[in-house]
Amino acid sequence: MKNEKSEPHSHTLPLEWDINISILKNPLLWFQIFMVVLLSSSYLLLLLVGLNLYENHWEDIPSSVLVFVSIGGSFFLAFSLIAFLFYGRGIPTKYVLRDGYIEQHTLSKGKKAVGLLGLFALLSGKNAGYTAAGASLLAHSREQIAVEWKDVFELQVFPNRKEIQLHNEWRTVMQIICPDDVSLSADWGACDAYVTVGLSMTEDNCAVDSVWNDFNGTADASGLYRKFVGF
Known about the structure:
elongated; 36% helix; 231 residues; 9 strands; four-stranded antiparallel β-sheet; three-stranded antiparallel β-sheet
């Protein structure tokens, strides 16, 4: 069989879809919040333990660790409260798939409120204020991001969550939440319905031999789909 290179189908792009990302069922979000809290609190732990060692107060090290855990827990609760306050019903997000890269746009109506909260919190000059300001800056930094395919080193697929994570050489650069399955109703008395499926875009620096689907074995999955009837 002759291998043919499949070129990107530019006439199908850009491909856009809107989705509401749940924060409760988002392990990546909670992991990122945990890492932010851990890294920010670690500086305090190093300072306290360093002082204990410098002054030869070894017996105070457990107390320093307890302070670290308490402050870190408070930071995590503050971040979580802000997340639930503004995104408790999910984060409205738009994805735009273009030729060569993908964009992620956060459409939340609470973005301005988060920004104001961060500003007033920062001006308060209190520790809790700095935490709230950091949370608002974190939210604003995710309002619009774009990732070029050439910069993607690895991807992870989580079918149960309909999620794809794009990674560079050391971290996750984008979380893609796929839309729900397409459901169509067949005409009365008919056992099938015609479904139009957009063509997939393929790109690889070593060339792509072929693209096919498991429905009809071709690059185009459009066709008559038979209705499933269960008993």
